[in-house]
Amino acid sequence: MAQPTEQGPGAASVLLFLFALFLIASPFATWWMQLPAPWYVPYLLWLLIIGLSWNVVRRTRRHGD
Q1: Residue 24 and residue 14: Cα distance in Å, rounded?
Q2: Close Cβ partners of 32 (under 8 Å, ≥ 6 residues apart)
Q3: If you placed Cys at 60, which of 3, 9, 47, 64 could pair as Cys (CB 3.0 to 4.6 Å)?
Q4: What is the value of pTM for the model shown?
Q5: Tens place of pLDDT for every residue, the chain, 65 residues?
Q6: Domain membership of residue 14 as a residue range
Q7: Contact residues for 45 (Cβ-Cβ < 8 A; gap 6+)
Q8: Rg, C-alpha atoms of the chain
Q9: Is residue 49 in a domain?
């Protein structure tokens, strides 16, 4: 039976990077930018990415550092 492997902090960082890339630099981005949305929507996306980054750092930081 296969044992679950522990993922390091790099796995979460790569997933976050790919998520940000999908939101900002993909064909999906041209679609959501054409929608009639308030002017602050791009800032909310950046805030979401920053908040997720903070969460990744907080979870991967060693206790006692």
Answers
A1: 15
A2: 41
A3: 9
A4: 0.66
A5: 555 555 666 777 888 888 888 878 878 778 777 888 888 888 888 898 899 888 888 887 765 55
A6: 10-59
A7: 23, 24
A8: 16
A9: yes
- Is residue 64, in this structure, part of any structural domain at all? no
The C-alpha atoms of residue 14 and residue 43 are separated, in whole angstroms, by 22
- Quick check: is 3 in a domain? no
Single-letter amino acid code for the residue at 16? L
**Domain assignment present for 38:** yes
Count of domains observed in the chain: 1
Place of tokens 């939101």: 23
Collapsing DSSP states into helix, strand and coil, what is residue 62?
A: coil
Rounded Cα distance, 31 and 21, in Å: 14
